[in-house]
Fold:
Amino acid sequence: MINQISKLHEKYFLSINERIESLNKFKESILSNEEEIYQALKLDLNKSKKEVYLSEIAEVIGEIEYHIKNLKKWSKKIKVKDTYQVMGTKSFLIRKPKGKVLIISPFNYPINLCFIPLIGSISGGNNSLVKPSPKTPNTNKVIFKIIDEAFSKSHVTYIKEEDLKNHNDLYNYNPDLIFFTGSTSVGKIIEKNAVERGIEFVTELGGKCPCIIDNVYNDDVYKRIVWGKFMNAGQTCVSINHILYNENLKDFEQKLINEINIQYHNPLVNHNIPKIISSQDFERVKKILSKYNDKIIYGGNYDEKSLIVEPTIIKCSVDDILNTEEVFAPIIFICPMKNISEMINASNLIDASPLAAYIYSNSKKSIELFIKKINSGSYCINDSMSQILNHNLPFGGVKTSGNGRYHGYWSFETFTYLKPILVNNQKKSNNIKFINNEIDLEKTKKLISFVKKFKE
Structure:
């Protein structure tokens, strides 16, 4: 089956107007299936309608509209100056499709993290094959329905888990680009296989994202921390993994607990927080809770039937955080420290290249030191996760947290090749560049020196 898709996707690439038409159809199909998206994500992840709308639907629709509005401008050829070596010629840059794109998306934001890369691929003029996570079967049905409604199979299609003998079958698609979002461990395998096959890749991974609390200038800080940590039950690649806070903030723990109680009151009864995606993942989370049971200062309870874990705070050492995998759950490690330098050093020890890094401070010096010393895919100052909501900012990792970037224009850049073109319509050639002619070396140097005054 995948070999047939590969051949089908080699035939035709869309014009700019056809891409815009395709994006409009995509938008219409998503909106016409909005209610089904809510129902599916309630079943797969226990997400509320508001959380689904804000984190999945609104983000995708906004991205589509942004690409439709700007695609013609982005696609225009870019004129560049000539140099003395090519006087009288014309040089410009154009963007061309990468070709065939394989998009492998995860479970945690199954609409967002499947469709936003797909928007970039369509905008770039590519043909695309989508492979969503098997952990969200109900949402996958809606994804497949939307793709069937919006696109021809020769442009965009999907592959189901049951259609693959093993994941190596995906490479039979012969993609020109693989776009993978998921765990670091799987991402490394994708990167290795892509390099061996000469395939370009973008990997959006994760890591232990730090949050440094240098000082608290108002209590709204706690609201932003709790939202940024416990949205989607902490199953977010840019979610806060741990908080390193100034030990002089004596009421920090209690105020954090108070805010959790406001935003997530009695979650095991009210079911007002998403669930852990699977029984296997739930067991992993239980092991963390068991390991640090004596260090839990808030929460720690769970419901095995619903797979819901209540927001939990574990007060621990830097070594504990260092020796524990990325949490990816509604659990947050907190560790008091003496000063900003100690917090930054600890952060770099725990993870030298996280996908995101956060700091809360009203000290310009502390913020500058934080950005200078921490190597992260993105930074967010006095807020949590909001850097990924602005499509004017690129989103991507660094080193172990990923390779490449996307969102907004950056998606168009990622899913296209920048091609240089030079046109020489002159009747006579520029004789300076020819080696074996009557112009000797000294005369050549003088001519170049003279011409450069006007060309550079």
